[in-house]
Amino acid sequence: MTLYETIFTRRAVRSYDMTVLDSAALADIQAFIDTANRLDGQSARLEIVTADKVKNDIAPYYILAHCEANDCAYMNVGYVLQNVDLHLQSNGYGSLWLGMAKPSESDSNFCIMLAFGKTSVPPRGNISEFKRLPISEISNEDNAIAQAARLSPSAVNSQPWKLDFAEGKVTIRYFGRGIMKLILKNKLSKIDLGIVTRHVDVALQSKGKAIQAITPITDKKGFAIEIEYKTQGELR
Fold first, then answer.
1. What is the DSSP string of the chain?
2. What's this model's pTM, rounded to 2 decimal places?
């Protein structure tokens, strides 16, 4: 299954068997992590650890993300780790974003973690199983890219963003909703922007678009991500 196809079947998996993966499988996952493209100027460090390295463990393995404490670094972590999330589920593993979990040992550069491992929980059968806002509330257009973005995971399923499409460009702007606007306008919201940026990136490439640049923007309207791509037709 491709990463794009996985967007429409992935789920947050909370039940795992504690089967130990062989060294080759773990090496393949680490290689994918190491080669996943980062945003320009960002260098998050991601490492695979076992359950004994995490407080209140639920899975056999975790990917811990470490980065600097700034908006662009947080967005990059979301962008990179969501690529890994899709990769894991495309290969039959379960995975789960853990926004509040902590490593066993204190680490000032720790950002967030992703649990993963073997599971008997099946992928979603179709998009009707997702609980998400309608396209009209998150995008100025209804197309394949917006549909993929709509299915992005986010902290407490808050979907704190809106998409604006223009010729050769998609702008994803932070947009808090209700009380979550006050609670999550922090690290988690910036990670969420990185996650949805990855879904947009994967969807654009699946439609034959070449990504030219992904640029964080901070202005009077708040925080946003601008994705420029080479257009070769309509986004159907």
1. --HHHHHTT---------PPPPHHHHHHHHHHHHHSPPPTT---EEEEEEGGGBTT--SSEEEEEE--SSHHHHHHHHHHHHHHHHHHHHTT-EEEEESS--BSS--TTEEEEEEEE---PPPPSSGGG-----HHHHBSS-SHHHHHHHT---GGG---EEEEEETTEEEEEE---TTHHHHSTTHHHHHHHHHHHHHHHHHHHHTTPEEEEEEEEEETTEEEEEEEEE--S---
2. 0.94
pLDDT in tens, 50-98: 999 999 899 999 999 999 999 899 999 999 999 999 999 999 999 999 9
The answer to whether the beta carbons of residues 151 and 132 sit under 8 Å apart is yes
Architecture of the CATH domain 127-230: 3-Layer(aba) Sandwich (3.40)
The domain ranges of the chain are: 3-117, 127-230
**CATH fold label, 3-117:** NADH Oxidase (3.40.109)
Quote the CA–CA distance of 136 and 33 in Å, as a whole number: 34
